[in-house]
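ugh finaly. both done.
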Amino acid sequence: MKKKVLKVVATAATLALAGALAVGCSSPAGSSSASSSTSAASSAAADSTLETLIVGFDNSYPPYGFIGDDGDYVGLDLDLAKEVAERNNWEIELAPIDWDAKDALLNQDTVNCIWNGFTMEGREDNYTFSEPYMLNEQVLVVKADSGIQDATGLAGKVVITQIDSAALAVLEGDQAELAGTFAKVDTVSDYNNAFMQLEAGTVDAVACDLSIAAYQMAANPDKYVQLAEPLSSEHYAVGFKKGNTDMAQTVTDTLKAMYEDGTVEQICQKYAEYGVDINNWVLK
């Protein structure tokens, strides 16, 4: 059995990898209704020609992917990906990417999945997804002393979110009428920057994923509050290049097996202080 090696690559190095990976998944995907451990084993055999799982992720997206105090890349999704790779005898490369370049990197095979708190709703036509594994919501966060009690209090205010994010899609889609009451919807490259601007008072609210809000409030319990009514409810899944159904099924089956044997719960508990809740896990 080949020993798994963890490789961490910088963005520039990641870009140089384009076209270097050939993925051969020739056997049909395992049945999701079968025993997860059996399905995971058969799917691993189907994907035996895959040597390296290259995970594209945003390295400023805690608690799913971020830079730890020791300078290493850490996060719930990265731990899940490492375990999936281990069980399928794959090497793994963690490839921090510019979020707005993710589609090009995936289509060029520079990365072979996007695994980083990736909302699937509204993106189904552009990717092949694993089955959803985590419940998510898009929410609004304001400063605790702002006096803003609900979304109507943001009329004439500035709201910021990440570029090409699910929150932005909601504000431009189902919640466009609400967004029309804001003075402006700004975008920024990452949520750390967004919350820095909220703290500085240059914006009045951040629209973001529930997990991001939970992380920021756990880290700053007296600084931020989440408005009660979510903008939308959705799910996280692992995104693959369109048509890569075998690999998506292999990851799905392996995650199910990990839930059954308690590994998922252990990983969630590791990040509980960051606001991760095992009760939001939906892939069983």
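ok and the 2nd:
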Amino acid sequence: MKKIITLALAAVLSLSVLSCASGKKNKSSKTYRPDRVFNKKEAVVDKNKVPMKGMKATEITLDMKTGWNLGNSLDATGNGINSETSWRQPKTTKAMIDGLARTGFKTIRIPTTWRNHIIDQTYTIDPRWMARVKEIVDWAIEDDMYVILNVHHDNFNRNVPMSYRGGYYPNELNEEESLCFLINVWGQIALAFNNGYDEHLVFETLNEPRLCGTPSEWNYSSGNPDQKAAQLMINKFNQAIVDTIRASGGNNAKRLIAMPGYACTVAAPLSPEFVLPEDPANNLGVAVHMYTPYNFAMDGNGTTKYNPKMASDLSYTFKQLEAKFVKNGVAVYVGEYGAVNKENPEDRKQWFNAFIRQGLKAGIPSILWDNQAYEKDGNGYTEKFGYYIRNEQKWFEPELTEVIIKAANLE
């Protein structure tokens, strides 16, 4: 077994090196440093075996129906194994996941931050952290849920040269360091999650990759030279990650891999700068985030009123994504969406109903963002994306949750 594990690790890393240095479409000018390879003895390795069902990318996303994000938990940026509660979220339990499944949610996105759990300069992930991530993923898999696992708050927060625990940053200055981080982290994720998981596990390469700490941080425009250059770099990152995952073989040779464009906007993947990676499995997806329209869904000081034009605008956006990707066999899902609580339950019900149904008409499921913040406070309604009372397995607004589930089942 030790020999097999060693060979598997060697295969991942050797092919990952090639992915950094010689990608056909998105060739990197940087060289990968083989002296900065994670500690093989510390890596968590998946030893199970579950057959794949042979589902296509768009079949998987159609079956996802609707989902929920374990927000502000494993994506917390604190250090150590106990960082899961550093953003004042309760420790995740099996009962929480079971409650989601009973409610009717078929998908859970598990945002996970890795850079603060790197334990040495060769990017080795703390095996205790990997085991904890694996435990939560397995609870959801046991409930027959789809799981989306990603690299979340690992985008560095400013445009300066990074250290080995910086994560990644989509510019030329940090290209080599970013590739070292991403290849090593995804190499370890691919070893820990492989043959023991069928199509119910989906990998998402990055979360909201962007030029943090600059005026160009959010939104996307092809006319913005900084954002355009960043998107081209994100293409390189996505290619390197896909190559790394595919090189691990087994079920990962076929697994659905989804990726965002700049800042997870809709505009970036619809732009000419966005290029999907070359993929021998031809099994890719696109992840976007949508809080549309902003003044209703996200702006705490915006309108509280729903109107039919919102449904029309949503339909237009989803149809654009469908035309470019879904109809060409590329899966699309909305990795984060929601409408802040402004004490407007009836209007929010209408918006949720329209959002989910318009998305599914285009073959695009949506995963609800939930940070457990529900009641108005000193910040008003800003960031009030609370839906699921985790410790009680109840919902702040049961009638709204019922709307979501019915819409997802097209009832």
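summary for the 2nd one i guess: The two ends are 50 Å apart (CA to CA).
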